[in-house]
C-alpha cells in the first residue's frame, strides 16, 4: 500500500524553509508552468482528445491565460496593506498591517471531465507561495499520465508533484495532513474528503455540481434557448458541472422548444462525425446513462440520429417529457439527456427549484424584468445566467463556486489566490514598524 508521508513531509520542509515565499521564486514557478504549457500544450491537448474525443486546445488556452494573469497581478495581489491606526493605538508609534502569506502544502484533486481546466487552481496556489500535490482523475488516464510526464520534466517534487492512481491512492493521500484541499467532483466523494480533512482541521474548497434548472417562460426567445441548450449539451457531451440538467417550461412553450431543439441539433450534422461532440468518458458511465433512460417513465420527445455505441462510447442526445418524481430527477444526469417538466408559470417554477438542493448554476430565459428579478432573488445557486447558459463560469474576474450541496468556497483568478492565502493581522508597537519597509513584510 503506497504511503505519501515522505512526499508531504518533503513539501512541508521545503515550504517551512521559506523557499516559496519570495515573489521572485513564485514568478519563477509560474514561468516554468508557462513554458510547460507553451512547449507541451500539444501533448496535453492530444491526451484530452484521447480521453474524451474532443479538442483540448481550449483547456490549454485557458490554463495559459490563468498563468499570465497571475504573473501580471502577483505583486498587486500579494502586497501587504497598511491600515490607519487609531482608537486603542498610538498613530505616532504604532503600525497596523494586513500581511498576506501562503498557507502551506495544498492538495488538489481534479476530475476527468475537464482535466486541465479543473487543475488550474494549482496555478494560483503556486502563485500564492504554496507547494502543490495534484491528484488527477484516473478516468482521464491519458491526460493524467501526460500531466505527470510534463510536470516531472520541470519541477522538483518538493514544490509541485503529480500523483497518479485510483481510489486507494486518493485514500492514502487523504490520510496525510494538508493545509488546504481542493476537490472538484460529486457530493458523495466530497463528503469523504471533508471527513478526512476534518481529522486534521484542514480547510476545503469543494467544487461540486447538482441538478441545474433551466426555466423557459412563454415570453422567451425559444430559438435562442434551444440554440444555447444544444451548445451546452454538445460541450463535452453534457459532462460538465454547470450543464443544464433539466428544463421547466409551460405546456404552451414545450412543443415549440422541443421542435427548436431538434432543428438546432440537426444543424450540427451527423454527430458521430462532429469533432465538437465528445464521447462518454467510459463504458461504466455509458451504462449509467443508458440505465437512467431505461428507468424513466417519461415520454421520449426526440432523439438524435446515430446508433448507440458502447465500445465507442457514443451516445446520441435525447429529450424526455417527464413528471417531477421521475427517475431522471433523482441525481445529476451529467450527460446528453435532457428532461423537460411542465409548469404553469414562474410561481410554480420557483417553488419547484426552492424545494430541491441548491444547484451549482440556475438559468432562465425570459424578456420579463420582474420574472428575471424574482428568479435571481428567490432561488439559491452558485451562479445565474439570464438568456444564456454556462458563460458565467468562463468569465475570469468573478468567483466560481457552489452553495450547500453544490459546493463550499470559491475559485477563479484572484479568488483562487485568496483561497490559498492567509491574511494575517500584524500590529507593531513602540515605533519598531517605522524601520521595516512595507515591501519586506
TrEMBL record:
Gene3D superfamilies on file: Aldehyde Dehydrogenase, Chain A, domain 1, Aldehyde Dehydrogenase, Chain A, domain 2
Entry keyword Oxidoreductase: yes
Residue ranges constituting the Aldehyde dehydrogenase domain according to the UniProt record: 6-426
Molecular function, one GO term: aldehyde dehydrogenase (NAD+) activity
Entry keywords, A to Z: Oxidoreductase
Active site per database record: 207, 241
A GO CC annotation given for this chain: cytoplasm
PROSITE patterns, per the entry: ALDEHYDE_DEHYDR_GLU
GO biological process, one term: aldehyde metabolic process
Family matches, as Pfam families: Aldedh
Top-level taxon of the source organism: Eukaryota
Family: Belongs to the aldehyde dehydrogenase family.
Protein name: Aldehyde dehydrogenase
Organism for this UniProt entry: Mesorhabditis belari
Classification lineage: Eukaryota, Metazoa, Ecdysozoa, Nematoda, Chromadorea
Amino acid at each position: 500500500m503506497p504511503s505519501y508521508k515522505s512526499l508531504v513531509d518533503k513539501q512541508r520542509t521545503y515550504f517551512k524553509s521559506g523557499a516559496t515565499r519570495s515573489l521572485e521564486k513564485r514568478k519563477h514557478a509560474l514561468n516554468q508552468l508557462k513554458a510547460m504549457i507553451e512547449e507541451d500544450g500539444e501533448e496535453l491537448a492530444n491526451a484530452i482528445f484521447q480521453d474524451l474525443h474532443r479538442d483540448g486546445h481550449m483547456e490549454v488556452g485557458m490554463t495559459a491565460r490563468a498563468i499570465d494573469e497571475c504573473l501580471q497581478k502577483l505583486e498587486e495581489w500579494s502586497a501587504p496593506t497598511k491600515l490607519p491606526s487609531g482608537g486603542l493605538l498610538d498613530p505616532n508609534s504604532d503600525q497596523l498591517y494586513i500581511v498576506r502569506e501562503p498557507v502551506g502544502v495544498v492538495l488538489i484533486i481534479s476530475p476527468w471531465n475537464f482535466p486541465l481546466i479543473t487543475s488550474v487552481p494549482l496555478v494560483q496556489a503556486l502563485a500564492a507561495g504554496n507547494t502543490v500535490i495534484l491528484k488527477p482523475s484516473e478516468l482521464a488516464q491519458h491526460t493524467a499520465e501526460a500531466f505527470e510526464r510534463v510536470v516531472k520534466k520541470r519541477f522538483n517534487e518538493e514544490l509541485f508533484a503529480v500523483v497518479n492512481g485510483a481510489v486507494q491512492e486518493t485514500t492514502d493521500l487523504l490520510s496525510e495532513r494538508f493545509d488546504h484541499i481542493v476537490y472538484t467532483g460529486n457530493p458523495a466523494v466530497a463528503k469523504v474528503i471533508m471527513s478526512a480533512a476534518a481529522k486534521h482541521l484542514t480547510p476545503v474548497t469543494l467544487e461540486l455540481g447538482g441538478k441545474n434548472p433551466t426555466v423557459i417562460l412563454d415570453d422567451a426567445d425559444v430559438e435562442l434557448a434551444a440554440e444555447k441548450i444544444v451548445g451546452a449539451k454538445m460541450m463535452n457531451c453534457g459532462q460538465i458541472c454547470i450543464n443544464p440538467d433539466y428544463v421547466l417550461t409551460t405546456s404552451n412553450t414545450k412543443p415549440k422548444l422541443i421542435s427548436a431543439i431538434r432543428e438546432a441539433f440537426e444543424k450540427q450534422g451527423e454527430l458521430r462525425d462532429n469533432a465538437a461532440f465528445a464521447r462518454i468518458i467510459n463504458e461504466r458511465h455509458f451504462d449509467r446513462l443508458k440505465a437512467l433512460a431505461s428507468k424513466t417513465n417519461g415520454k421520449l420527445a426526440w432523439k438524435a440520429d446515430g446508433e448507440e455505441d458502447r465500445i465507442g462510447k457514443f451516445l446520441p442526445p435525447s429529450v424526455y417529457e417527464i413528471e417531477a418524481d421521475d427517475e431522471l430527477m433523482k441525481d445529476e444526469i451529467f450527460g446528453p439527456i435532457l428532461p423537460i417538466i411542465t409548469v404553469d408559470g414562474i410561481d410554480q417554477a420557483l417553488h419547484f427549484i426552492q424545494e430541491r438542493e441548491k444547484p451549482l448554476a440556475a438559468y432562465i430565459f425570459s424578456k420579463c424584468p420582474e420574472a428575471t428579478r424574482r428568479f435571481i432573488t428567490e432561488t439559491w445557486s452558485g451562479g445565474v445566467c439570464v438568456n444564456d447558459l454556462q458563460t458565467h463560469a468562463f468569465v475570469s474576474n468573478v468567483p466560481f463556486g457552489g452553495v450547500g450541496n453544490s459546493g463550499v468556497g470559491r475559485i477563479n483568478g484572484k479568488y483562487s489566490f485568496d483561497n490559498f492565502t492567509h491574511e494575517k493581522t500584524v500590529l507593531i508597537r513602540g515605533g519598531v514598524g517605522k524601520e521595516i519597509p512595507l515591501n519586506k513584510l
